[in-house]
Amino acid sequence: MPAPLLQARIITTPDHAQALIAELTRHARQLLGDNTTYRTQTRHADRTGYVRVYLTATRKEAPTDDHHDG
Question: How many domains does the chain have?
């Protein structure tokens, strides 16, 4: 897997988590383009009533030619 172009962690309330990560992903798409894979993940935070939301952006790998003529 290629090295990430962007990694972000947001700690917020569950109510705000999806809106914030959606907005951050939208901005990342504008900056990094379509040749990028965007992954999000939500986990419980150590602080009660909060979650951790992660966004990772990596370049899409070039397709491999698994067909061999011969």
Answer: 1
